[in-house]
Design a protein that fits this description.
Blueprint: E1 2-6, E2 15-19, E3 29-38, H1 41-48, E4 69-76, E5 88-91, E6 94-95, H2 101-104, E7 115-116, E8 128-132, E9 136-138, H3 145-164, E10 172-176, H4 181-192, E11 196-201, E12 216-219, H5 225-233, E13 238-243, H6 248-254, E14 258-266, H7 280-284, E15 288-291, H8 297-308, E16 318-322, H9 326-335, E17 341-345
Parallel strand pairs: 10-11, 10-13, 11-12, 13-14, 14-15, 16-17
Antiparallel strand pairs: 1-2, 3-4, 3-8, 3-17, 4-5, 5-9, 6-7
Helix pairs in contact: 1-9, 3-4, 3-8, 5-6
Enzyme class: oxidoreductase
Protein name: alcohol dehydrogenase
GO molecular function: alcohol dehydrogenase (NAD+) activity; metal ion binding
């Protein structure tokens, strides 16, 4: 099969074409003929560059990146259902042991042996990828492979974040970085579940960055951002903030607007800088700060139930590119010039 590999860590040019043996599924595994693979900031772009958190966890080079993907099952291993052959499927990336305390609680995202397709085993920047059958969900005929890969990349963690924030109909949710791949999905899914959404992004750089999303748009570069958030939140304040950025100035802008019983859900800190938190308001107002690593199988199932009910990736926030342009996709994400989710389409064998 044809694949893209990294033989050493480096810039986008480190992605090289290669001919590799076709992988063979083992017990409980299936092989997917990959049609589309999402490009992730940390699991792909940062790992390729040799940066934390995942580069040091790659077992050996050369390595095939590529986590969440979609395609068609073309072969099954022992103990896997042969009827899956020919099925259109989407693949989640989380690998778990199924035996530790977290797994027994159906909290695979906290597994003691947590792993990822594309990091801890060979990934889907390739024409074929072998994965555990438990990681596969069939997709409706009306959902394209490109849409499915984008939903797999962001939908499960968005579902997990909204569950952790106890977000439901009538709640007010703030999403910093709402124009990004995950932020746009969180905003759209929150609105689909009946919440009122406020989105924040750098509109001074691109005034139309949040167009098409079901939200109240605020400019993150506004010097009066804190007042703008307070005004948009209304008398009850924010019920939830889903923060995938962890930028100090943004935290200081939204925390005054967090209401009683409000929850801040975090799944990222792009600057890695410490964020000072004043704990006084958290106990006086029964507020919570919750970390969410990624979605577990329950949240994957809930996402695809939402898809069956009509949820789709936000229009205009999924961008397909041929996998021959993978280096360009990495460069676009690395430079911050991309918006929404980039997805590579993989040519047929």
């Amino acid at each position: 099969m044809k694949a893209l590999v990294i033989r050493s860590f480096g810039g986008p040019e480190a992605l090289e074409p290669a001919d590799l043996p076709d992988p063979v599924p083992g017990p409980g595994e299936i092989r997917v003929r990959v049609h589309a693979v999402a490009v992730a900031r940390t699991k792909d772009v940062a790992a390729r560059a040799g940066m934390p958190p995942f580069a040091e966890q790659i077992p050996a080079l050369p390595h095939v990146l590529g986590a969440e993907h979609a395609g068609v099952v073309d072969r099954v291993g022992p103990d896997a259902d042969a009827d899956l052959v020919g099925s259109r499927v989407v693949v989640s990336a989380v690998l778990s042991c199924s035996q530790c305390r977290a797994c027994r609680m159906s909290r695979e995202e906290a597994c003691a042996e947590f792993g990822l397709v594309g990091i801890h085993r060979q990934g889907s920047y390739a024409q074929y990828c072998v994965v555990p059958v438990d990681n596969v969900r069939t997709i409706p005929a009306e959902v394209s492979f490109t849409e499915a890969a984008a939903l797999a990349a962001n939908g499960a963690v968005a579902s997990a974040q909204l569950d952790a924030g106890d977000v439901g109909p009538g709640d007010t949710v703030l999403v910093p970085g709402a124009g990004g791949a995950l932020g746009a999905t969180v905003a759209a899914l929150a609105a689909f579940r009946g919440a009122r959404v406020i989105g924040v992004d750098r509109l001074d750089q691109n005034p139309r960055r949040l167009d098409g999303l079901p939200l109240v748009a605020l400019d993150g570069s506004d010097p009066d951002l804190s007042a703008r958030i307070l005004d948009a939140a209304g008398n009850g304040g924010l019920n939830c903030v889903v923060d995938n950025l962890g930028i100090t100035a943004l935290c200081e802008a939204y925390l005054p607007a967090l209401g009683d019983l409000g929850r801040v859900v975090v799944s990222g800190a792009i600057s890695h800088d410490p964020v000072p938190i004043r704990l006084l308001q958290f106990y006086l107002r029964s507020q919570s700060l919750i970390g969410v690593r990624t979605g577990n199988r329950h949240q994957v199932d809930r996402l695809w139930a939402d898809v069956a009910a009509g949820f789709r990736p936000p229009a205009g926030f999924v961008h397909a590119m041929p996998w021959t342009q993978a280096s360009d996709a990495h460069l676009s994400i690395q430079s911050g010039s991309s918006s929404g989710q980039l997805v590579l389409t993989v040519e047929a064998p």
